[in-house]
Specification:
The chain is an all-alpha fold. About 80% of the residues lie in helices and about 0% in strands. It has one domain. The protein has 3 helices and no strands.
Amino acid sequence: MQKDIQTVLDYWFGPIEDGMTQDNRNRLWFGGDAETDADIKQ
C-alpha cells in the first residue's frame, strides 16, 4: 500500500520536484523551516 502511494506521488510530483532546488522542495513539502520539520518528522 505504502509503495503504491509513493508511486502515485512520484508520478504527480516528481517532475515538479525535479525542477526545484532542494530548498524549494523542502518548502513545498514542509512549509516553513525545513530543519525543524525534519526533526519533527523523525
